[in-house]
Design brief:
This protein is an alpha/beta fold. 38% of the residues lie in helices and 18% in strands. The strands form two sheets. It has a six-stranded parallel β-sheet, with helices on both faces. Helix 9 links the parallel strand 8 and strand 9. Bound molecules: alpha-L-arabinofuranose. Alpha-L-arabinofuranose (AHR) binds next to helix 3 and strand 9.
C-alpha cells in the first residue's frame, strides 16, 4: 500500500471523470444585492463565529452585501461557536424589530423556543449555511447552503476512483475521520458520507474518528492524539471535514516524519484558497467545495419577498470537486 502511494503525485495528473471543472463555482453575482423597495431593510445576522477561513469569507460576503448603499442596515453578531449567544442575538434582533433574521446555526437542534418567539413577532427567519432540526418547519422561511451529505459522498467517490486508478481498489485502506463541530450540519452530512463509504467497502477501515471543531489548532491536536493512539504507519487516508483542520493535521503529520499527500492521502472540504495552494504543493489530494458566498443569495431571497414573490424552502448551491490534476488551472478563477 505504502509503496503504491508513493506514485500518488504522478498519478494525480489523471483527471477523474466526475469532477466538474467547468461548473460555475460561485453564485457570486452582485446584480441583485441592491433591493428595489425605497425603505431601509433592517437585517439581523447571527453568525456561527470565526472558526475557519470559510467562515471569514462568509462574514465578508454578508457585510459587503447588506450595506447602507444597497439599502440595508445590518446588525451582525459573531457568536464564537456558542449557541446560547446566537439565541440571545435572535432575541435582541426581535426586540430591535428587524425586518428579517438570518441565522447560520452552530448546531442543528435546540432552536424551537426562540424561533417561536420570532414567529410570534412576525419576523421571517432565513437559515443560511447550516440547517436546523425543528418540530415545525414553518418556524423558518427557507434555507440556503451547501449539500453536506453530497459533499461527503463526493469525497468518497473521489477516493474510490483514486484507489481504483492505482490498482488499490481491493487493498486494506485505513481511514481517519477528523470531524467538525459535533451536531453541526456540515459535520453530520460529511460524517454520514464517509461512514456510508466505509460500510460499502469491506476493505475500508475507520481506524479513528475525532472532532477538531473545524479549527486549525483543533485539527492538529486531534491528529496528534490519533497518531499517538493508532500509530502514523497505520494511517492511509485522512478525511478532514474542513480545510482548516486539514492544515492543522498536515503539521502533525509532518512532525511525525511523514509526507502529507504522499504517505497519507488527504481529502478536505471547503476548497478555499489555501487548499488549492496545498494541492498544487502536493500536500492535499482532493478538496470538495463548500461555497461560503451566501450574502448575494440571501439578498436575492429578500428581494423576491419584498416584491411579493415566493421562494423555495430548501435551496442547495452548486459545488464542485477539485484535485491535484486541475488545481493549478482552477485556482486563478477562485474568489475565496
Ligand atoms: O458550515 C460550513 C462549515 O463551517 C465549513 O465547512 C467550515 O469550514 C465552517 O466551520
Amino acid at each position: 500500500m505504502k509503496k503504491l502511494l508513493l506514485t500518488a503525485s504522478l498519478l494525480s495528473l489523471v483527471a477523474f471523470s466526475f469532477i466538474s471543472c467547468n461548473k460555475k463555482t460561485t453564485a457570486d453575482s452582485t446584480e441583485s444585492v441592491q433591493h428595489v423597495s425605497s425603505r431601509t431593510i433592517k437585517i439581523g445576522y447571527a453568525q456561527v463565529g470565526h472558526e475557519a477561513a470559510w467562515r471569514d469569507a462568509n462574514t465578508t460576503s454578508f457585510k459587503t452585501t447588506f450595506t447602507p448603499e444597497n439599502g440595508y442596515e445590518l446588525l451582525f453578531v459573531d457568536a464564537d461557536g456558542n449557541q446560547e449567544v446566537q439565541i440571545a442575538a435572535i432575541r435582541d434582533f426581535i426586540a430591535q424589530n428587524v425586518d428579517y433574521i438570518i441565522v447560520a446555526p452552530v448546531v442543528e437542534s435546540g432552536w424551537d423556543a426562540v424561533l417561536k418567539e420570532a414567529k410570534a413577532a412576525a419576523i421571517p427567519v432565513i437559515l443560511s449555511d447550516r440547517q436546523m432540526k425543528v418540530s415545525d418547519e414553518s418556524l423558518y422561511l427557507c434555507w440556503v447552503g451547501g449539500n453536506f451529505l453530497k459533499e461527503g459522498r463526493d469525497g468518497v467517490k473521489w477516493l474510490e476512483s483514486y484507489l481504483e486508478n492505482k490498482n488499490l481498489g481491493s487493498e486494506d485502506i485505513n481511514i481517519v475521520d477528523l470531524q467538525g463541530t459535533i451536531g453541526a450540519s456540515a459535520q453530520v452530512g460529511r460524517t454520514k458520507g464517509i461512514e456510508e463509504g466505509i460500510k460499502a467497502h469491506p476493505n475500508w477501515n475507520l481506524i479513528a474518528q475525532k472532532s477538531g471543531d473545524f479549527r486549525t489548532d483543533g485539527g492538529k491536536k486531534a491528529m496528534k492524539e490519533i497518531i499517538k493512539e493508532v500509530g502514523i504507519e497505520k494511517i492511509n487516508v485522512l478525511f478532514a471535514e474542513n480545510d482548516d483542520m486539514a492544515l492543522g493535521a498536515i503539521e502533525a503529520i509532518k512532525e511525525s516524519g511523514k509526507k502529507p499527500g504522499e504517505d497519507i492521502i488527504i481529502i478536505t472540504f471547503d476548497a478555499g484558497h489555501e487548499a488549492f495552494v496545498r494541492m498544487i504543493a502536493g500536500e492535499i489530494n482532493c478538496a470538495c467545495e463548500c461555497n461560503p458566498l451566501h450574502g448575494p443569495r440571501v439578498a436575492e431571497i429578500i428581494n423576491t419577498l419584498e416584491n411579493g414573490g415566493t421562494v423555495d424552502k430548501i435551496q442547495y448551491v452548486d459545488e464542485a470537486v477539485f484535485d491535484q490534476s486541475n488545481a493549478a488551472a482552477i485556482m486563478p478563477t477562485r474568489l475565496y
